[in-house]
Amino acid sequence: MAEPRTRPLTVAGRALAGTVSVAVLGASGFTWYEYRQLDSGMVKSAALTEARKNAPPHLDKSVNLLLIGLDSRKDMDGNDLPKEFVEEELHAGSSEIGGYNTNALIVLHIPANGGRVTALSVPRDDYVQTVGADGKMHKIKEAYGIAKEAAEAKLGGKGLSTAELERQSREAGRAATLQTVQAFLDIPIDHFAEVNLIGFYDIAKAVEPIQVCLNNPVDDPIVARTATHEGGGTGLKLPAGVSSLDARQALSFVRQRHHLKNGDLDRTHRQQAFISSVVYKLKQEGVVGDLGRLQRLFDVVKKDVVIDDRWNVLDFAQQAPNLTGGNVEFNTLPITGFKTIGGQEVNTVDPDQIKRIVKQLFGHEPPPPAAPDAPAPTGSAPTGTPSAAPAATPAKARSVVDVRGASAEAAAAESKALAELGFPTGRVTESATAGRAKAATVVYGAGAKADAEQLAARYGVTATAATGSAAAPAGHVVVTLAATRTPVPSATAATAATGTPADEPTPDLPMQGPAVKAGGIPCVD
Fold first, then answer.
1. Spatial CA neighbour of 70 closest among 171, 176, 197, 170
2. What string of DSSP letters covers 107-137?
3. Residue 356, H or E segment
């Protein structure tokens, strides 16, 4: 029997590739007639054929699905999107901005025997070895555009129409993106879906209003572009808590990167939260049972979404309920820090660490045993769990880490995670300061500066030297965690309402901030 050909109808834009249509498939009585109507109108790509030549081997019968959000202000034929739409309504800049960067890359791992679906976001500025582009080190988002430009130069003298040149050169971009992601994560990609800016807007328009939740109020005023300033801003202004967004606001919500503590990294969590909120709405409001609204969604998908030509929608519909019942967890792969290379700011990464994390998270490799002196956690990790993780080295080479948390349980959970990365465990205490803090702090004693700076990158903050041995003894780093935040409504409440059973816990792995769990309206920064 042929392996399942997956097909989530994605929500994507400058910074989003999502799973809205997967919810449609999984929660509706998807008939053969509906399948033929949808499948016959989809834009299909053969890019996966080239990518599979260099794909890592399959270790089981699970399915890996790559969702691509293309930062392009052009349509399928290479024509500029209407200026009044891009610049005036969406405040997304001109058609010359963005190029063909893939500003959202999300891998959905669907287990062979069902169970929780794992979603991994790859930060767009990760500095990696490209495959199928020019073979050099670039931001991972640039693999598409580099390969597309090279293909255009090669095909330019063949007398192709503008539309055909666009189609063929985009195929080269897709193949390069697929191969680069496969090599970086060391997994095969079985299927993919791609959507650009207008695709996200069209799908958001079909399901608006959409509720989202913010931990803090946001104000992202628009700054005009000048000769000395690139401009920016989305115009988004929302209070803390739950807000209902129209399609234009939804695009601003997933595009904002200014005035966020962790910039693009926080924007990745916005993408994940938005996907969760849209899927939750489709389930709760019975959109999947409304044939009129379903048809509008299908019409958008056929116009704006590109999928691989190996995808069998009907086969995949049998697996889709796991994607729509709150049984999905989104994680963001960690970075090790930031660096300026060739005038560009990039995320530095540890490729070996990334591969280990992916294998452990996908169940292909057992997690490393906990350090013997690490205290057993009595609760879950705080919502303020840090961002980039340092690469593990032998414990004897590391400074002792004292952890203070808003609760003893939160401190113990984080201390255990650090112990598994090779940091010797120090004092683990409850702290009133942590209960009030909005951001983590990292203070180091004599001889511990290097380790402190690596830990500071993990939390997205700057390490500071201790003012005395009382603040941090020699050879010690003192980490004070940020206060825990609780999403509302919680995934637990949604589980109780929907009857979806709890799944096995995620292994304690270093990730870029807290996981975003589907099944409700998760709160993010």
1. 197
2. EEEE-TT---EEEEE--TTBEEE-SSSSSSE
3. helix 351-361
Q: How confident is the model over 306-354, as pLDDT tens digits?
A: 889 887 765 555 555 555 555 688 899 999 998 999 899 999 999 999 9
pLDDT digits (tens, 9 = 90+) for 141-162: 999 999 999 999 999 889 999 9
Residue by residue, DSSP assigns 471-496 as: TS-TTEEEEEPPPP---SS-HHHHHH
Q: How many CB atoms lie within 10 A of CB 370?
A: 15
Residues 404 and 478 sit within 8 Å (Cβ to Cβ):
yes
Rounded to 5°, the CA angle 448-452-456 comes to: 175
pLDDT in tens, 171-209: 999 999 999 999 999 999 999 988 877 777 777 887 888
Helix, strand or coil for residue 339?
strand
Domain assignments of the chain as residue spans, ordered by start: 12-207+282-353+509-520, 369-480
The CATH architecture one would assign to domain 369-480 is: 2-Layer Sandwich (3.30)
Give the integer Cα–Cα distance in Å for 467 and 98. 45
* CATH of segment(s) 12-207+282-353+509-520: 3.40.630.190
